[in-house]
Design brief:
heterodimer, A: 5-stranded parallel beta sheet, about 50% helix, globular, B: alpha/beta, 5-stranded mixed beta sheet, 12 helices, about 35% helix, binds thiamine diphosphate
Chain lengths: ~375, ~325
C-alpha cells in the first residue's frame, strides 16, 4: 500500500532521520530539541516497557485480574504526553501507562486498578498527578468528559487569553475501535461547536481486540476530523518525534484559542489486547513481525546511537527500567486488602440512610460469623 | 457439557434451522467472542450470518432493529454486562416499544445476549447485574438460564420468540457442566422450575444464584431444615404458579439475587407473593441481595455477593418468626 502523502514522520524504521514532506512544517521544532530532550523520550519509552513486561508477568502469576499491555505504542504516548504543558489536562483510555507516568501518577496506582483493589486509582485533583484523569473502561466515554472539560475551560476564560504559560488545553486518548462509538462522534460535535481547546489523540493500533480497523472505517480515520470541522493530522505513531512535534503544535494552537484538533497516530499493538486475549486466533504472525521491525524503541535507539549517544546511557536506562520493574513487583506483593466497609464509603457524598443501614448490617453479620466460627 | 458449549450448540441449531437468523457482535467471528460462545460459528455459517460488528453497542442494537424490520432474526452479543448501557436507549426506547407503536403490525424478534453477574474477579464494568432495568421495561422479555440444558433450549426458544428477549447469561457458570438433552425441551421459555424439593422454606432466584441456593439447601439439610429451591428462568414475565404453590406448602420464602436490593426483581417477586399468598405465609418474604453500592473492586466481591451463608442467615430469620 502506498504511503499516505499526509503522513508526518521524522524517523524511519531503521532510525534514519528523513522527514516526510508533511513533516517539514514541524521541522524547526524538532531541530531545536536538545540531546537531553531526545534522551528523555527514549528513557520514557524504555522504562515503561520494562514496567509493562513486569505487569504482564504479574498477571500471569495471578497477581492481577487483567493487564492491557502498552507494548509497541510507547512512541505515540511519550511524544504526545511530553508535548503537553504542566497546566494541560489528560483524559486517558486504559492503556496509557506511560502518559500517566510522565504526568506524575505512580504506576502502582494502575496496578491497584488491575489487581481489583479500586475502580479509580488516583486523584485527578491532586497536583502530583498532573491533571490526569482516571482510566475509562467504557470505550469512548472519556472523549465526552474531555470535551465537557474543554467547554468549562472556554466558559471560564482559561484558554485563548494569549498567555501561553497560563492557557490550558485538554488531550483525550482513544482507540481505533472506540472511534466507532456514538460518544466519540458526539464529543466531536460538541468540541467543534464550542471550540474546545482540545486534542483528540487516536492511537490506531490496527486492532480492536480481534476486529481490524477496516471494520471500523473505510476511510482513513484522520479524515473524519474534517467532517466535524476540525483540522486533523496523520502521524507515524512509532516515531516519537512526529508524535511530539504534531501534538505540541496542536496543543499550542488549542491553548491559544484555535479550537479542537484531531491526530491519528498509526501504530501497532505488538502483544495481546489484554492478558485474556489470544491474538493468534485472528491475526497472522507475519503482520506482527512486519510491525516488530518498526518498533518505536529500536528506531529511537538507532537514531540516538547515530547521534553519538553513549553505551553507558543505554545501560543506565536499562537499569532504571529494571529497578522500576523490581520496585513494582515488591510493592504489588505488599499491597494489602480492602475493608468491606469501604464499599459504602463513597457511594454518595452526603449521608444516605441506606448506606448507614447496610454498613451496620454487614458489620453485625461479620461479627456474628466470627462469633460462630470459634 | 458446560453452559458455554450448550449455548453455542443452541445457537448453531438456530442458525441451521433458519437462514433468517443472524448473529452480530464485537469479536464474535474469528475469535468466537471473548467467552468463546460463538466459537466456530462464523467458519460454519459465513461472515454474513455471524457478523463481526464495528465497536458500537447502540449501533449494534439499532441496526438489529432495522434488520428485524427487514425480516431477519438478529441475535446480538453484548461483550460484557457493563457495556450494554451505550445501547440502553435503543433497547428500552426503541426495541421494546416498536411493536406496540405499530399496533402489532410488526414483530421484533431480536435477542440480546448479555454475559452478566460477578464471581470472575474482573475489573470494573465487567460484572453487573442489570436485570431490573430490563424487567422494568414493558415490551421486553427477560430470561436467564442456569444450567447447560436450559442454555441449549432457552437460547433457541428466545430466537424463536416473536418478542425481543434479553438473554442474560450467568458468566460465572459458563464453565459449569451439566447434562443436555438435545432430544426434547424440558420446559417452555416462560416457566419457572422447582430445582429441589423441600418442605420448610422456599428459596427463589435465578442465574448463578441457583447454584448458591442449592449449596445453601445442602448445608441446611445437615442442620435439619428442608429447603425448596426454585429457578425463576424467566425474569419477565415471572411464572408465579410454582412459586405460589410452593410457598403455600412451606409458608416461608427467601429471594436471593446478586443485584442490589433496592427496587429490584426480588422486591417485585416478594411483593407479589405477599399479595397473593398472604394467609399462607408464616413470615414476611425476605430478600438477600448485593448491597446498594456499586459493584466493588474484585477483592471485595466475596463480601458483596450473597453466598450460601448469607442465604442461610435469612432462612434462619424466616424460621425464627
Ligand atoms: C462500550 C464498550 N464496549 C465494549 C468493550 C469491550 N472492549 C474492551 S477493549 C475493546 C477493543 C478496543 O479497541 P480500541 O478502541 O481500538 O482500543 P485498543 O484496546 O486497541 O487500545 C473492546 C471491544 C468496552 N470496553 N466498552
Amino acid at each position: 500500500m502506498p504511503e499516505d502523502p499526509a503522513l508526518v514522520r521524522f524517523l524511519e524504521a531503521d532510525g534514519t532521520f528523513a522527514p516526510t514532506p508533511a513533516a517539514e512544517r514541524y521541522r524547526a521544532a524538532v531541530d531545536a530539541l536538545t540531546d537531553a530532550d531526545l534522551e528523555t523520550f527514549y528513557r520514557d519509552m524504555a522504562v515503561i516497557r520494562a514496567f509493562d513486561v513486569q505487569a504482564t508477568n504479574l498477571q500471569r502469576q495471578g497477581q492481577l485480574a487483567l493487564w492491557p499491555p502498552s507494548y509497541g505504542q510507547e512512541a505515540a504516548q511519550v511524544g504526545s504526553a511530553r508535548a503537553a504543558r504542566t497546566q494541560d489536562h489528560i483524559f486517558p483510555s486504559y492503556r496509557e501507562h506511560v502518559v500517566t507516568k510522565i504526568r506524575g501518577v505512580d504506576p502502582i496506582d494502575i496496578i491497584r486498578v488491575m489487581r481489583g483493589l479500586t475502580h479509580g486509582g488516583w486523584d485527578p485533583t491532586d497536583p502530583k498527578n498532573g491533571n490526569t484523569h482516571i482510566y475509562t473502561l467504557v470505550l469512548g466515554s472519556q472523549t465526552l468528559h474531555a470535551t465537557g472539560f474543554g467547554m468549562g475551560l472556554v466558559f471560564d476564560g482559561r484558554c485563548g487569553t494569549g498567555d501561553a504559560d497560563r492557557d490550558e488545553a485538554v488531550i483525550v486518548y482513544y482507540g481505533d475501535g472506540a472511534s466507532s462509538q456514538g460518544d466519540v462522534h458526539e464529543a466531536m460535535v460538541f468540541a467543534a461547536s464550542y471550540r474546545t481547546p482540545e486534542v483528540f489523540f487516536l492511537q490506531n493500533n490496527q486492532w480492536a481486540i480481534s476486529v481490524p480497523v477496516s471494520t471500523q472505517s473505510r476511510s482513513p480515520l484522520y479524515k473524519r476530523g474534517a467532517g466535524y470541522g476540525m483540522p486533523s493530522t496523520l502521524i507515524d505513531g512509532n516515531d516519537v518525534l512526529a508524535s511530539w512535534a504534531v501534538t505540541r503544535a496542536a496543543l499550542d494552537d488549542a491553548r491559544a484559542g484555535g479550537g479542537p484538533q484531531a491526530i491519528e497516530a498509526m501504530t501497532y499493538r505488538l502483544g495481546a489486547h489484554t492478558t485474556s486475549d489470544d491474538p493468534t486466533k485472528y491475526r497472522p504472525s507475519s503482520e506482527e513481525e512486519a510491525w516488530r521491525r518498526r518498533d518505536p524503541l529500536a528506531r529511537m535507539r538507532a537514531f540516538l546511537l547515530a547521534r553519538g549517544a553513549s553505551e553507558s546511557f543505554f545501560a543506565e536506562v536499562d537499569a532504571e527500567g529494571a529497578a522500576l520493574a523490581d520496585d513494582i513487583r515488591t510493592r504489588t506483593n505488599a499491597l494489602g486488602g480492602l475493608e468491606p466497609d469501604e464499599m459504602f464509603a463513597h457511594v454518595y457524598s452526603e449521608p444516605h440512610p441506606l448506606m448507614a443501614e447496610q454498613r451496620e448490617w454487614l458489620a453485625g453479620y461479620e461479627a456474628s460469623l466470627e462469633g460462630g466460627a470459634s | 457439557m458446560p453452559l458455554s458449549r450448550a449455548i453455542n450448540a443452541g445457537l448453531r441449531a438456530s442458525l441451521a434451522g433458519s437462514d433468517r437468523v443472524l448473529l452480530m457482535g464485537e469479536d464474535i467471528g474469528k475469535l468466537g467472542g471473548v467467552f468463546r460462545i460463538t466459537e466456530g460459528l462464523q467458519a460454519e455459517f459465513g461472515e454474513q450470518r455471524v457478523i463481526d460488528s464495528p465497536l458500537a453497542e447502540s449501533g449494534l442494537v439499532g441496526t438489529a432493529i432495522g434488520l428485524a424490520l427487514a425480516g431477519f432474526r438478529p441475535v446480538v452479543e453484548i461483550q460484557f454486562d457493563g457495556f450494554v448501557f451505550p445501547a440502553f436507549d435503543q433497547i428500552t426506547s426503541q426495541l421494546a416499544k416498536i411493536t406496540n407503536r405499530l399496533e402489532g403490525a410488526v414483530q421484533m424478534p431480536v435477542v440480546i445476549r448479555i454475559p452478566y453477574g460477578g464471581h470472575i474477579g474482573a475489573i470494573e464494568h465487567h460484572q453487573e447485574s442489570p436485570e431490573a432495568y430490563f424487567t422494568h421495561t414493558p415490551g421486553l422479555r427477560v430470561v436467564s438460564p442456569s444450567t447447560p440444558n436450559d442454555g441449549y433450549w432457552m437460547i433457541q426458544d428466545a430466537i424463536a420468540s416473536a418478542d425481543p428477549v434479553i438473554f442474560l447469561e450467568p458468566k460465572s457458570k459458563y464453565w459449569q457442566k451439566g447434562e443436555v438433552d438435545t432430544s426434547a425441551r424440558a420446559l417452555p421459555l416462560h416457566a419457572s422450575r422447582i430445582v429441589r424439593r423441600g418442605t420448610d422454606v422456599t428459596l427463589v432466584g435465578h442465574g448463578a444464584m441457583v447454584t448458591t441456593m442449592l449449596q445453601a439447601a445442602v448445608l441446611a439439610e445437615a442442620e435439619g431444615t428442608s429447603i425448596e429451591v426454585i429457578d425463576l428462568r424467566s425474569l419477565s414475565p415471572v411464572d408465579y404458579g410454582p412459586i405460589l404453590e410452593s410457598v403455600r406448602r412451606t409458608g416461608r420464602m427467601v429471594y436471593a439475587q446478586e443485584a442490589p436490593g433496592f427496587t429490584s426483581l426480588g422486591s417485585e417477586v416478594a411483593a407479589t407473593v405477599m399479595e397473593r399468598a398472604f394467609y399462607a405465609l408464616e413470615a414476611p418474604v425476605l430478600r438477600v441481595s448485593g448491597f446498594d453500592a456499586p459493584f466493588p473492586p474484585a477483592k471485595l466481591e466475596g463480601v458483596f455477593l450473597p453466598d450460601a451463608d448469607r442465604i442461610l442467615e435469612a432462612v434462619d430469620r424466616s424460621l425464627a418468626y
